[in-house]
């Protein structure tokens, strides 16, 4: 089920909210758990068993770890539980990729049944891993109530595309949380903003990017290539941050406080800063559960650079079973290591700051071309076109084919909203009643327009669903 669907907005969500808000406190977790199972099973019920298996494996593994007092036994139990989680993830997400590359490398012809990846498996697997590692470290006690652990792993607001919620951040909220008018009000407003980002900006600019990226690179000029790259950069940001806004808003309605997942990443002056602002839940997950255990920066320089290389290799591989994602991860890792080695991102000055910002924009926009392209060969040709390094044939379509007046408005809105201009619009103090009223009217208009866009479209998938 999609957040950006009429079924979810006008049927599922009102029904769940009504039952949840009217229910006794001791029943609220069970209501959310049932709703989350229905939410996930709505689209692909056959894969519900995979999520249930993940819950059982981590429930049993964490409880055995917490009861064992033998350090060696605890390590083996942790390793087996992690292996079980990663084995399921590897099979469903990377099996096809592995066999295709074996066939290509050894000129083999291994016949296999192509595996279809369950939606959200990367997200809920990482959440499960954070839980079992937290228990092993002693950061949190093992959850004895399997229903509460199930709620943590499959809570529907963040089940499909994050943010990745670490167990120690919400353990107390699962046990005890309050639903207030302020939380519900904030949650509704945050949900509307996320929905608007998705429907009005991401989908509009996504149409531009799709038209350009569907063409052979020889059939459009350098300027059109940049338009496509920038359109996709904005599409991806507003699609994913819009989903995160909706997830955070829904969590607030049900009394949860999820950590922010984006903090205006496109204003960054370095790739190091970019990753502190982009997909924060994933970058902090890798920092806590991979980078620091590898030694972090408390090792020799060469080893620190190796740790960063491993983290960004894993980041690219997490995003998808394709070489373009791997190269995208290494592309970012290369800049992180460069900045770490030279201290470029720490230099100050107005002119230096401008150069840093331009450098950062070029780095992540080129990276998004790798991310968007179907193959690395297409990505490479596209990037060469951006810099006028290939000879284009007769241009098939002129710029007005790709961008109309509505899409120009969407570009302007995307540019403005990527900066912290409206950042505190939902926190206007109560005493400013006129401003609050205007904001509420503006949100109502956004909601009406967004739902009209939903009604007019047939399919509104989120990009990160496939990860």
- Helix segment tally: 19
Strand elements, count: 0
- Main beta sheet: none
Helix-strand makeup class = mainly alpha
Radius of gyration: 23 Å
Q: Please trace the helix and strand order, writing H or E for each element.
A: HHHHHHHHHHHHHHHHHHH
**In whole angstroms, how far apart are the ends?**
16 Å
In short:
The protein has 19 helices and no strands. The chain has 467 residues and is an all-alpha fold. Helix 9 packs across helix 19 (433-456) and helix 15 packs antiparallel against helix 16 (376-386).
Structure write-up:
By secondary structure, this protein is mainly alpha-helical. It has two domains: 30-176, no CATH class; 183-466, no CATH class. Helix content is 70%, strand content 0%. The protein has 19 helices and no strands. Helix 14 packs antiparallel against helix 15. It is globular. The two termini are 16 Å apart.
For the structure shown, list the relevant keywords.
globular; single chain; 19 helices; 2 domains; mainly alpha; 467 residues
Outline the secondary-structure elements.
Blueprint: H1 6-22, H2 28-43, H3 48-67, H4 71-106, H5 121-137, H6 146-154, H7 156-159, H8 167-175, H9 181-213, H10 222-253, H11 271-277, H12 280-291, H13 301-319, H14 323-342, H15 350-372, H16 376-386, H17 399-402, H18 405-417, H19 433-456
